[in-house]
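Notebook, p. 212. Picked up where the previous page left off. The plan for this session was modest: take the two constructs that came back from the sequencing core last week, fold each one, and keep the raw output in the notebook itself so nobody has to go hunting through shared drives later. Recording the first one now, exactly as returned: residue sequence, then the structure token string.
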Amino acid sequence: MNKLGLSLMAQYVNGSVESLKRELLYIENSGADCCELVLHGLDVVVGGHLLPHRAKRVIAALRERDLEYTIHLPHDLALNDEATAQMYEAVFLASIEFAQMAGARVIVFHAGMSKQYNKDAFLMEAERVRKIAEKASGTLLCIENPLILSDGIFTWGDSAKSIVQFCDLVNMPNLKITFDIGHYYLHSKGSREELLGAISTALPHIGHVHLHDNFGKPTMLLSHDYGQRIASGVADLHLPPGWGTIPVKEALNALKGFGGIINLEIEKRFCDEYASSLSLVRRILEERDA
């Protein structure tokens, strides 16, 4: 059965090793097998360079817990922008160094997004990722379909077909897809059929999964605060599975054959639902695999 993880959002560590220890203990006690760390909450990479003394302290904290780890890179790490690609590539390479020191199995990064289509820029993104993957021996790099909130945004993560094309173009064995179920459901405007079809298309390339719930309403009330959007059920809510309208059971059934980590990206305000969410997903997987 798949191992299950919980995300540790950057703002709940915010550079504090003591906060990191507290949150890891809570995640372990909730019953997770794994924890997904967000790089920009750890302060182990500064200015595109790994800080060895800082990494040593963080890794010591990680090893206090009986958890496996994955790492999520900063969300705007766009390798398709010539102005920032070199800077972001340095961050990526430093994060690989940290992941290998920490024994993290997977590094997650978002597909780059642009407001204008530029074929050369998108090919450059694939070429940069290929070169990075060559330097990441033993580490699985997983490109995530990002959250797309408006029309006229160009990204390899626009569809399952295009993100598969990206993987084929890079053509490296340690590059796979992080399939974010919640993001794709929003992108499909709540279409169950489109979501399940996308999982089927991407399945041979999926190396990691993000699971969280919403109502498939991507762009309404974006000016409202998070609490109001929860009440109205709009946008990217990162709810516990079963709280929204994503067909969680069908999605997990469609992932049969995928053997990697399913990471629950649930907002911290719902932390008292961590254990029940993990139990729900485990029960579905046990029934699926029986």
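Okay, moving on. Second construct, recorded in the same format:
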Amino acid sequence: MQARRRGDDQAGTAAPARGWVLIEHHGPWPFGGFAELPIDPEIVQPVRHAAQRIGARVLLIRRYGRRVAEGPLRWAVLRYDADGNHRQQWGTWSTDQDLLRIVPATEAPGRSDLPPVFLVCTHGVHDACCAIRGRPVARALSQVWPENAWECSHVGGDRFAANLLALPSGVYFGEVEPAQAVEVIRELLRGQVSADHLRGYADLAPAAQVAVIEVLRRFGPAGRHAIRLEEAVRSGEQWRVSLRCAPPLPARIEVELRAHLLPQARLTCRAPLPTQAVGFALVELRAD
């Protein structure tokens, strides 16, 4: 709530990852997520290490309202692919030992023909705002896409709740209300991403995320893979980000940004002390 009142800019705040390990869990979510579940460390550690090897984050998932389906729980390994051939591999687990199947799955090729997954952070133990703002969004998405939508544990950026993550493409949206969430997902499924509510793409560093958002602000919506990073060069507080783009965008766009520290603030409801985040200001955008 305070972040909205301050007008915090969410551009460039997508948590970096190139893959995700999802584990369905219907019990209470501990503050630290999967790492703090009452599961034998000899199972938890291999799963976490396998995820780290491929640059993946481990998230807990459940259906909206803790709806429990018949049969075993599910797990998934989702991999980002720069060409859009995103990979997924799904499995089930009934015993803790079954989770070790995730380890070889992180190295398996996976399938590229499965529908996307939509996650909404509702991790209220981590930050109450995520549950308060996230659950209505999870409900709205589950009504339209019941097989694609899940609640999930902490994804980062609590101050931008409700947070919505589209996988495996790694598109982060923030500060979405239920109707807005449905619209941005419909737009994504039509092959377009706009700057509205966009926090960034998880495969890019913060400066490059901001550069992409500035391009979308200037030229309008574009496909998830229509903008490719060529180079991001830092000189002190200045960044020069070079992008290669597909039509109808200009073929090459160069974005100059200036990094700066934002005023001290409590960035989450549970933060004990104020801290400073980094923001970026547009200096110039040049298109060829």
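Notes on construct two before I forget. The first strand starts at residue 19 and ends at 24.
Flagging for discussion at group meeting.
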